[in-house]
Amino acid sequence: MQLDFHYYATYCAAILAGYSHEDSLSVAWSAQFVDCCSETVLKHIDGPVSAATTQLQLELMDSDTDILGLQKITRIWASFHFLPGDLYAERKKCSKRFLQKYRLICNPNGKLLVDTVELARGRGMQAAGVAMHILADTWAHRYFAGTPSLVINSTNYYFYELIPAGDQFFERPVRFNHNPASADNPETGLYTGTIQQGGENSIMNLGHGRAGHLPDYSYARYRYLPSWGDYQEVVKDNPSDYEHAFRQMVYALKSLRTPGDRFETDHYDDTAVLPWLGQIREILNRRQTDASADWKALAEKISGKEVEDFNAEKYQREYIDTDMEHRDDTCLGRFIIAALSQKSMVTNRIFSSGNMLAGFSVDFQEKGFRGIRDYRRLLKNLQREDSAGSEKEETK
Amino acid sequence: MTGSRRILNIFSGLLLLVFSALLFVSPEDAIPVVLLVIGLGITVRGLQTLIYYFTMARYMVGGKQVLYRTIILLDFGLFTSALSNHPAIYIILFIAGIHLLSGLVTALRANEARQEGSSKWILTACYALIDVFLFVLVIYFGLFRKSMSMTVYIYAVGIVNTAFNRIRQAFRRTAIVYIQ
Fold first, then answer.
1. Residue that wins the pLDDT comparison between A304 and A325
2. How far apart are CA A287 and CA A221, in angstroms?
């Protein structure tokens, strides 16, 4: 998914869930900033690099692909963009090594999604935005894993786009070129994808790189053979998946602002979305690689307010100018804490399932600190939350 | 990185350093050993790929390609090991060829990095140039000056580089993510 959905559609979902214009903008900004918060940006603002929620193409090219490098990549991409659907998935006749990668395949409505949304409960708009990004991506990025893997993420020449023609669809083979500078062309069916690399852990085999940006376009319908799929083709219907993502976001955001509620999988909002469903479907089905203008128009129609364009640097100055002691209370500071918290949770779940692909996870209360210093911030915030909670109890 | 992996990295790095030292001490006698090591290296790589095929690739669509690659690697490894009985010219051409191929591949990577706008393309291009330079050195000294020593020295420098990389990796700090 791209800015059009992560920013403008998330704003629409927040408004429909009953959030104010300002809060909806905060949720939408945080959802989109997940795609911008790289180590480069964090270094620029003197933030903790462990809070990176994405890696720029250049960072990926420069990253090591030894065990430690791969674990770092997996922590970022599995936590924020390819949330595993089932960490205990079974598959007959395969090795443990294969199974560990297979279990990282992203899918919607997994147990980790519940943990993700619940982690955001009571932690403000920034945490809600991070959770919405992850939720939406489980629909767009399903069937791919957030770890470099030839055996999971590769595709081959068997790749066809299904293009609507009246009541039916016609098929057209998708052609991929490997020049990252060239633009995708929905009219001719020429898309950019990563080049075939024989190495299991090549960066080219990360996520949906081999399928190019097709999973990111809401209009796209296609069928292909995922390399993990045992020669069973998969039909990906993005308009339907994106609609589910939108309705689930509205449900999740409503749940987050309802005290005592708990997010459940396979629940989608109907009531708030219904009046706008026709227009939403129209946008989702339009063959365009960037639907920002359409979503923005709809967002302004729904809220009756002007929706500012996304600006990645919006809160950076505030963060830089605030003293170290109070940085975590700024908008960007809260985003960073939410990111650390999410990465910590997902790494722990993967580690606890007996899978070392995301690295070690340690309970800092039992073991103390030996590793990444950045996580002290998370501990400090959790302690603050705990003491605030205790004070509340005492007041009661 | 696990502790055993670190120990393995340090151990293999030290072993490579000892081997390269031997090459510097006695270059002329080392040619058959060099070829044996190269051949063994490629064969081990072939065996690793074979394990990869059986544990991973055979479950994926089109995994047979990995098996074909394995066969080629094993064949190449055995072929290299067999070269020790051949005249020095083949050995020189073989080591020169490895550097030329490596240089060309690295140059392609540098070009790709430049197109991506990465600042590291200059460093990668330097590596490519070094490989091509080593190719020229091997050809010049091996074919025209008939000096096998230089060919072995060049090979030994490559080994030292690999050894230090292994040891460096072993000392990289493991990231531990905390949870409460």
1. A304
2. 11
Neighbours of A293 (CB within 10 A): 12
Q: Chain A closest CA to B114's CA: distance in Å? A: 10
CB contact under 8 A, A364 and B178: yes
Q: Which residues of B touch A67 (CB under 8 A)?
A: 1, 5
> Has residue A368 got a pLDDT over 80?
no
User: Which range, A62-66, B63-67, B157-161, is most confident?
Assistant: B63-67
Phi and psi angles of residue A184, each rounded to the nearest 5 degrees, phi first: -70, 145
Identify the residue whose tokens are 């197109």: B115
Give A-chain residues touching B70 at CB under 8 angstroms.
none
In a domain, A348, yes or no: yes
Contact at CB, B61 and A225, closer than 8 angstroms: yes
Say yes or no to pLDDT of B29 above 80: no
Distance CA A279, CA A324 (A): 46
Reported ipTM: the value is: 0.79
- Both A197 and A217 in one domain: the answer is yes
Residues A221 and A293 in one domain: no
Of residues A97, A198, A361, nearest to B56 (C-beta): A97
pTM, whole model, 2 decimals? 0.83
Q: Return d(Cα A82, Cα A71) in angstroms, integer.
A: 14
A211 shares its domain with A244: no
Asked if A347 and B66 come within 8 Å (Cβ–Cβ), the reply is no
Q: Which residue of A has its CA nearest to B62?
A: A227
Is B115 within 8 Å of A379 when comparing Cβ atoms? no
In a domain, A134, yes or no: yes
Half-sphere exposure of B64 (CA within 13 A, CB side): 2
Please tell me which residue of chain A has the smallest CA distance to B55.
Answer: A95
Who among A95, A151, A375 is closest to B178 (CB)? A375
| Residue A253 to residues A6, A131, A264, Cα–Cα distance (Å) | 14, 9, 12
Whether residues A109 and A252 fall in one domain: yes
- How would residue B180 be classed by pLDDT, with cut points 50, 70 and 90? very low
The range of the structural domain enclosing residue A195 comes to 151-237
pLDDT value of residue B118: 61
Cβ-based contacts of A372 with chain B (< 8 Å) = 175-178
Kindly identify which residue of chain B lies nearest to residue A224, measuring between CA atoms.
Answer: B61
Domain-ending residue, one of A196, A217, A237: A237
One-letter amino acid identity for A175?
R
**How many domains would you assign to chain A?**
2
Residue ending a domain, choose from A177, A203, A237: A237
Residue of A nearest to B54 (CA): A95
The verdict on A220 and A268 lying in the same domain is no
| Domain annotation covers residue A396 | no
d(CA A199, CA A191): 23
What per-residue confidence (pLDDT) applies to A305? 95
Q: Are A290 and A343 members of one domain? A: yes
DSSP A164: E
Which of A187-196, A371-380, B53-62, B150-159 ranks highest by mean pLDDT?
Answer: B53-62
In this structure, the answer to whether residues A294 and A347 fall within a common structural domain is yes
**CB–CB of B177 and A68 under 8 A?**
no
- Distance from CA of residue B127 to its chain's centroid? 14
Same structural domain, A113 and A217: no
Minimal-distance CA residue of chain A relative to B166 = A66
Residues A329-335 have a mean pLDDT of: 94
